[in-house]
Amino acid sequence: MRASSEISMAGTDGTTRTDHTAHRGHADRTTRTDHTNETGETDETGDTDDMDDMDDTPVMYVESSVAGAAKILVVGPMGVGKTTLIGTVSEIKPLSTEATMSQAGARLDTKVRPSKTTTTVALDFGRITLGGELVLYLFGTPGQQRFLPAWKDLARGALGALALVDTRDLEASFDAIGHLEDLDVPFSVAVNAFPDSTPHNEDDLRSALDLLPHTPLVICDAREHKSSVQALISLVSHLIETLTEAS
């Protein structure tokens, strides 16, 4: 995919920049163990708390061929698979702020399946390079309504967003999509296919989510790399088309 200089956004403060480095080539990825629970969220174990291990972690530099970068949000309700998707596609070790769910939080948060024991409390972060020319910096937002102030801060400087939905509870996705519309952030929708999800045709899903005709809607599996990358490519194609029409 051809990168566009018009979509070179990476900074959380809304500033525009393109990353360059004297290093080239991919370092080996840090080995980690992923445990994916029923809700599609990923719990990671490893020795990242040990400073010696962190010092030995190989660094994957941005390719010198990269011509542009974009900040992309990954949004959706709690348990929809945001952490999993970012961890699946990220070419660097993803940053995750998972915390154990507590009884205190249970009084405020939407109820989720019993197997869901952790939740993102600040953000998830990952990076992926498309076509060797465009870098996407992925920022996963917390799913709980009480973290909306942080959610709005993360949206600053974002070129677009991928909204994940779960057909087992479409209503839970209404707030996230509504926030994107209020903030005027272009987005596409990816239906995360869970094993026990009931299939729905596209027209029914668009009607239920009240999507505009030009809003992309795709089916993906957040646990599968190719499927998740295709969802991001669909979003980027939509953003490029939107920018081209506006210019």
From TrEMBL:
CDD domains: Ras_like_GTPase. The keyword DNA-binding does not apply. Residues 16-38 have a biased composition (Basic and acidic residues). Signal peptide: none annotated. The keyword GTP-binding applies. Gene3D superfamilies: P-loop containing nucleotide triphosphate hydrolases. Keywords: GTP-binding, Hydrolase, Nucleotide-binding. Residues 40-56 have a biased composition (Acidic residues). It comes from the Bacteria. Residues 1-56 are annotated as: Disordered. It holds the Pfam family ATP_bind_1. Belongs to the GPN-loop GTPase family. This is ATP/GTP-binding protein. It comes from Streptomyces rugosispiralis.
